[in-house]
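Input.
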Amino acid sequence: MNGVRKGRHKWIFAIPVLLFGILVFSIFWLDNWGWTSSGYARNVLEECVQTMEKYHPLCKKQLPEKTKDIYTEVVKKYENRWFVSRYELFLDLERTTRSLGDGHTAVLPYGNLNRYFERTKNKKAEELSFEYQEGKIYVSVEGQKYQLMKLNGYSQEEILRHCIFYGEYENEYGVKKDISILNRLEGLVLYDLGKITDTYIHIQYLSGSGKLISRTYPFYTSQKSKTPKWSYEIEENYAILTINECWNTPEFSEFLDEFFTKLSQTDIQNLAIDLRKNGGGNDICAAVISHLGVSEYVSSQGFPQKPDGQVEDATCKTLPSSDPFNGNVYVLTSKNTYSSATVLAVTLFINELGKIIGEPSSNSPSSYGDCTIETFADGNFLMQVSQYYMYLPVQGDTMQVDIPCPPEQAVEVFQKEIGD
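Output.
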């Protein structure tokens, strides 16, 4: 009898140890493989929406219908699950914020959460590139362009409907920008055209002879090339100032001083400011315009709501450089020119300080912006959210371009324009 009792006592102690071990292993597995409970995911989504309601002009009275529909759909999905991958949660947060049609309002992984995205953030099918032209989608395969018929089983009409629903739809060039990222896994998932477990992208396109061709491409990780924030080149008859990020910092001011000092030591009369890869940052108009010998210019202004009707122009004063550039200024733009870069290009245009060459930007000259940044979900996510409607005195939702051309040809067009 004593032996039986001793055996029972061993099991009494062994069961809690076993359960504790299972618990520790489960926590380790969930944490290291990027999963979280559905209850936690719902709380994170709620925090995201509350931040939008607190700051964004479109959400202060009530959520827009589209945003409310996506929020309701995601909550329902989480209620029927035990666990949610952190990557899926991130994409759901992105879908929710992007439904505002405001590219300035966005969610990013932050802090320790970044490690879950190293494997997925650069996944793309590099052989493919997609392009939107005159209402149709084309795919380039091995350097040849064909009309796309289906992507992952979705027709052209369905793809465009998904991209416009979830994307930044301020103008046609926003759609072009969204279509161009469909070779990336996160782009497909974001627009409900793929699943996070996908390892292949499937396309169907028409060959030159009209034959329907089906192809499958694997996703794989590729390192993104690093480009400098700012650079310049001074040639015999012209100079090109490339600004890939808008950050009004002492470092940027020193860079501009260096460039314009060197430029003043030449007889060059033509300057191109290249913003084709500039996704924005903050306002650098005064920093650049001060080197053009201008003391006052028409500027953007912020409103708590989108203004209804005509708005009186606002002006900004700046201290002109003692040795300004007084030649011809051209601005090179593309659909990837965004936010503060768009503001710089349009501000130079409306003040007759420069001509724009290239393609209109993917956001409207006037748009929601002037963002506040907050962390939420225990510091695991960072959220940038617009607080004001930033107004520039320009009609319509598309940047006006003086000399339209494909952005990859903008430098050649600039050289031809100046007679080089």
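The chain is about 35% helix and 25% strand.
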